[in-house]
Amino acid sequence: MFTPAKKDKISTQIMRQIKNAIMQGKLKPGQALPQEKELVTEFGVSKHTLREALRSLEALGLIEIKRGAGGGPVVSEIDWATARDYFSSFLYFQKFTLADISEIRKLVEPYIARKAAEHLTPENFAELHTVHEDCVNAFHSNKDVIRNETEVKFHVLLGKYAANPLLWVVLDFVNNMLADVKHKLKPGKDFSAKVIEGHQRILDAIERRDPEAAAQTMYAHICEVEEGLNLLGK
Q1: pLDDT tens string 74-92
Q2: How far apart are CA 116 and CA 142, in angstroms?
């Protein structure tokens, strides 16, 4: 399965080979890797180098090193939260502006709203409506709606209903970046009131099964949020 590692950055090459084997399905979640002696021979490295690579893979969440008799490295099950964290960790080191965030939202979210109007089940709609009502109740209870993050949940939940994991992870990350911007700018109740009104219009369009109205309303809502935050940032 593996080939001898080259002399430069040996542990990194071991990591890459094992990661590729996992991604290609040669090693499956729950499957134990070969014993240490076999891996040392197969890679042509020392125990120290092999263990360094395995520790790094464990830190990434790709494997779990079980201790004790019969232990050893086992391929981990990569869940949604772990995948999102990997993606977020990379992107958080990039430089983003509010315009960057809004651009992605304008490209992705009207499509998602359109799709929701076409395919959302009654159960999904009820769940979305509950999240919206939570936001409304927080607003009327004078709670910090921004910190409560029900605004973000509304959009992320719509992304989840799109049944496309790539869209969902992008939307989840982008809206959480937007939440960070809101935490920094601290918009007031007038801003939250407009957000709630925008969400209600989106909900109404989805409930009417009007894809075009849902897409247009979502786009207008995103523009309104961007404009409001830009005014606060000046």
Answers
A1: 998 876 666 666 666 666 6
A2: 30
